[in-house]
Predict the structure.
Amino acid sequence: MASITYIDILKKLKQLKDPDSSRDIISLGLVSEIVIIDGKVFFSISVPPERAEELELLRQTAEKMVTEIDGVSSAVVTLTAERKPAVREKSSSSLLRSIDRKRPGLSLPRPIEGVKHIIAVASGKGGVGKSTIAINLALALKENGFAVGLLDADIYGPSLPWLTGLHRRPRSHNKKLEPLEWYGMKLISMGFLVDKEVPMLWRGPMVMTAITQMLRDVLWAPLDMLVIDMPPGTGDAHLTLAQQVPISGSVIVSTPQNLALVDARKGLEMFMKVGVPILGMIENMSYFIAPDTGKRYDIFGHGNVRLEAEKRKVAFLGELPLDPKVRATSDEGKPIILAVPDSVHAMQYRCIAQIIMKSL
Ligand code: ADP
């Protein structure tokens, strides 16, 4: 079954006109809360309460139109009474509310010229190994002959300079930045553009501008895949990315303990909410094998990410053990897949890359 995205639904609903104004319901900002789960689509159409009855036909038509999209098994559309913004702000999930509020007025995400696929690697919490996984996965995809780029979207805490040992500034060419070349990949990070010791005290809008520039004003083309190492959390940067460019799929990284999973779940929900397909979840620091005895220790627990993936009906991509070599090779600027190509980690990354290639 073809996997549907939020954009497919928006495109379809753009053909549906509000009977009163003859403008389409997307431009009017009436559609919100689109959720796609396993081919089932749910969304709301906001209407003034006094028009609810006469707009029942509009609701049914919207449901029928979305069900016709290839890959949609069913659609459930609800009419919701228009709410005042002040009420929305007070909602417990203000970020998701703000996605909804911003969504209708937005233009559709625009591809980056010459870039075929964008893959987001995300986690709820920092420190779970997201950047380590993003760079190793990018290298594993590159090993398959693809032209791969890696964008470090963590504006406040960029990690690419440390993971690669590169501390050069990219050159500019006709007002565009040339990404740094490293083991045949193209790289950009805020860490290459600012002094490493200067703290970043940027406000939200500046972060969004910086991310937009790293997407649009960098000479990425031609690329088969652009891997984006997302900042931790589910904040403005994620929203900017999901709204600006069509993300082919996201990979959610978590360690097995509940504290990390709670936030990973939020990341997963955010991507689902904005219609970004979930490629799957990875459990990092899944277990530890003592090098002297060969005994296995489940330091942070084990298997919870797989269970979560099953519960959410998304793919489980694999588990990576805790291994001091990963930290050591990272710190030396040589990711494990390059430093120890026959390690368990390197092999796992190659398997995960295969699954992702098939999914794309
Ligand atoms: P995040 O991007 O989620 O903040 P990082 O990739 O920067 O996390 O990883 C945090 C630290 O954990 C780094 O020092 C990294 O080398 C280390 N690390 C990541 N994965 C593993 C692992 N499987 N085994 C041992 N150390 C790891």
Residues 252 and 281 are 5 Å apart (CA to CA). Confidence is low (pLDDT under 50) at residues 83-107. The radius of gyration is 22 Å.
